[in-house]
Amino acid sequence: MVNLGASVNSMMKKELEQRLNAPDVLVFKPAQHQHYYDFTGSAPLRHALSAFLSRHFAQGRPVPPNQLVVMNGVTSCLNCLGFACCDAGDVGLTTTPVYGKIFTDFQERDNLDMRALHLLPKDVAGTTEDFTVTAALLESRLQELQLEGKRVRLIVLINPHNPLGNVCPSHLFLDLLKVCAR
C-alpha cells in the first residue's frame, strides 16, 4: 500500500501549530539526530505506524515494520514507485482530472511517458456517476495505447480521488486488477 495523502490541510492548522510549538515536541539528542536515517524512515516511526495499521486496518494480520517505507511527500513516493516499477520511456497511465503533479512527478526524473485515462461526466460516459473509472474504460484505453505500440507498465489511481474526492469501492479495484492481469 502506498498512501499518497495530501500534505496540505488547513482544517487543523491552529491545533497543529499549538502542538508543534509545545516544549515536549522535540528534544535534541545527538545520538538520535546527528546522523543519516535509513531511507525507509526512522525505526520508531515505522514501529508506531506498524502498530497503528495492524490495529485499525489489517483485519487481524500484523503489518511488520520492516515492510513499511516512510517517505517525505508524494513526489518522493511517486519517484521511487516509478523507478522501482518502470524503465525510462515506459508508459504510465493515470485518470484525469488528477492531482497536477502526477504527470511531472513521473516524467521529470523517471522519464516515463505518462498518459491520461480521461474520466467523463456521466451523461457523456454513460455511467451513473460523474468522472468514474470503469473496467471497460480502462480496457479500452489500454487497447488504444497497444495499437500505438505502447505497453502500459504503471497505472496510478488515487483513492479518494484528488481533486474530485470520489472513493473507489473495493469491488471496482478488483475489476480493474482483472483488466490489468489480462
Overview of the molecule:
The chain is mainly α. The protein has 2 domains: 20-67, no CATH class; 74-181, Type I PLP-dependent aspartate aminotransferase-like (Major domain) (Aspartate Aminotransferase, domain 2, 3-Layer(aba) Sandwich), CATH 3.40.640. 40% of the residues lie in helices and 9% in strands. It contains 8 helices and 3 strands, in the order H-H-H-H-E-H-E-H-H-E-H. The chain has a 3-stranded parallel beta sheet. The relative contact order is 0.11.
Quick overview:
This protein has eight helices and three strands; from the N terminus they run ααααβαβααβα.
SSE blueprint and pairings:
Elements: H1 13-20, H2 30-33, H3 43-56, H4 74-85, E1 91-96, H5 102-107, E2 113-118, H6 122-125, H7 135-147, E3 152-156, H8 170-181
Parallel strand pairs: 1-2, 1-3
Helix pairs in contact: 7-8
